[in-house]
Structures are given as C-alpha cells and as structure tokens.
Amino acid sequence: MKLDSILCRLTLIALVLLLAAPAAMAVQTGLRCDLELVQSGPQGVVVLLSLTNTTNEDLLVLEYETPLAGLDADLFRIERDGQAVAYVGPMIMRAGPVDGSWLRLAAGETVSAKVDLTDAYDLSVPGRYSIEYVALQHVLAASEQAIAPVARPLEGKTATLTTLPATVVSDALEVQLDGVRAPRRLVDLISPVRDGSPKDSYPGCTSGEIDDVVDAKADALTNACCSCDYCAAKGCGSRWYQTWFGPCTYESTVCSNFCDACTVLEDDRFTFNCGGSYCEPGVIAYVYQSRSYEIWLCPDFFVYNNMQVHAIDHEVSHWNIVAGAEDWGYGSKFCKDLAKYYDPSYAATNADNYAYACDNCR
Fold first, then answer.
1. CB count, 10 Å around CB of 195?
2. 144-148: long-range contacts (C-beta < 8 A, 24 or more apart)?
C-alpha cells in the first residue's frame, strides 16, 4: 500500500480529548507531530510517529506519555466503520516521572519511532478503519527543568505533576483492513495456582510481599465498601462526592461502581502477580480491563508503600466488571480539577478519581 503521511496538529487545549478548557488552563507547546502509515497487512498495522521541536530552545517531553519507547497506553482513537475499537493493552499506574522519564529535544530536533498497533487494539475484523493519534502530553521548556518532578524511590515519594498537559490529536488516517491478525496472547499472564478452594494467589511474591498485599487488599476493601455505603447515603449532595465527581450527572453510576468494587474486593480469587513485562522503574502496578481479578504488582509497589491501598482501589476500578475506568490523569489536584472544571463524564471514568474518593471516604 502506498505510504500516507499525515501532519498532526498539536491543539492548545489542556486535559482531555477535544474538551474545551478554561482559558487560564490552556497549554501551548512547541511540538509538531507527524504520523505515517508504514505497514498494513495480515501481520499487522504499523505507523511511524515523529515529534519535532519547532521552538528555538530545548524542550522536555515526558516520554512515557508517548509511544516512542513502546505502546503501553491508550494513545490512539480507532474506529471501524464508525464503531469504536477498544484498547486491549495494559492500564499502567506510575509513581510519576523518574530519572530518565523526561526526554530532551533540542531546538529543531525530531525523534521518531515505529508503533505496532496490532497488539494494543483488535484490528482483526475486516472493515474501513479510522486511526487518530490522541495523547495527553506534558511538555516543559528546558529553562523550566527545575520544576520537572521526579519520584524519589529511596524516600518512597511519588512525583506530582502540577503543570497541565496539552492534547496531541492527529488528522484521521483512513485505511481498509482485511484479515489483520488478532492481538497475540498476552505473554505475561500467569495461571493462578489453586488447591481446590477459593483463595487469593501470589505468583512470584515473597512471604513479606504477600503480607503487604494481604493488608493492602483488606484496607482497599474497607475503603471501597465505605464509599459504596457513603455514596448511597449521602450521594451527590455531599462535599465528598462533589470533590471527586462534581455535579450529580452520573451519581447512580458512580455509586454503583463503588458497590461493584466492594463486591469484587470481597472475593478470594485474586491473582497478584509480583513482576511483569511492564515493570520498568516508576511503574507501581497494572491490569488489563478484561482480565478481572488479576493485578500485576511491580517492585515499586513495595517501594512506594504509601500508595499500596490506593493502587489496589485504582486498579480494580479499571476492570470492566467494576467501572471500566480510564487513565485520564493522576494525582489529587488533577482529579479535583477534573471534577470541578470539566464534563462530569471524565471524573466518572477516571480510575484515580475513584481511588482518591476511596482514600477519603468519611
């Protein structure tokens, strides 16, 4: 197929996809994004993503918010014959930027990477596909390097992103696909070890790690059930609800999601895998939305131990049997702003909003 090249436009809105933000929160960056179709055939769909610094000074780009080092987040909006194609890759929770997370782009420099979409999105059904690159991207001028947050593992402290991201949105790439292979079997899935009775399992975990996970799950259960009860009793009239979810638009859905999380966490058939393919520095845990009762805990889950309970409530909310939540953003301030300033559908579908609500259940 003839290669198609598309010039992405980097919009000046901050936060979520094509959502109008308050003018004071708009973010300008100096990035140009180019997206090119490299391969389209039975073995998969590959695009070439290029980011160019168009300014006269160096820029710092948060690399893990791009697919430059691999596609491990929902960074594309893909439709088949007008119907959304679900992301099937990992939902990753991070401690925030660590050393090496910030990529420096010199003035005029371009960085590129080939991105295979096939294992992150199910493109196996024949049809006419529309493919757009959509990503929330933190970008700082090199002169602002002093304010670039970095997590501190030795102190167990996460990094807080206080600057707002810009939204990178490409023009739609239209392509006819016939017979593209289905996503490969997830290589790091581990079958739980059972002895015939329902109980949680902990493949790859040490005895000390198991103790931490048992305690964290118990506290996560307490917080989720507290949120279920409190949401039912007080609802959207409470300051607690308004802080994390804003107006009453999705009250019944939000309250139901907390109760589903409570029910799920009461179950004793979890598989907590210690380690996994995506456990790079700064990654605390991850799940797959369709793989209920399975959580991958990375070494940093045990380093940032103040995040353990929060992480479990966060990850459980991702599962389709609970809230099917996305990762629009992280951190207390971000979640409060999401509830206060933006369409309530975003707070109601953001995993960290559920986790912070659980943390603060009263």
1. 7
2. 144/60, 145/60, 145/102, 148/60, 148/97, 148/102
The angle that helices 207-234 and 251-265 make with each other, rounded to 10 degrees, is 150
Cα dihedral 329→330→333→337 (10° resolution): 20
To 10 degrees, the CA torsion angle through 39, 40, 44, 45?
70
Per the rule left: phi > 0, alpha: psi between -120 and 50, beta: everything else, 301 is alpha
Which of residues 199 and 356 earns the better pLDDT score?
356
The secondary structure of 123-176 as a DSSP string is: --S-EEEEEEEEEEE-EEEGGGGGG----BGGGTB-----SPPEEEEPPPEEEE
Q: Kindly state the average pLDDT of the residues 91-109.
A: 93
For the stretch 5-42, pLDDT in tens is 333 433 333 334 344 343 333 344 688 888 899 999 88
Residue with tokens 């949120």: 227
The per-residue pLDDT of the chain, averaged, comes to 86
Contact 134, 66 (CB under 8 A): no
The confidence score (pLDDT) of residue 328 equals 86
CB-based contact 102:61 (threshold 8 Å): yes
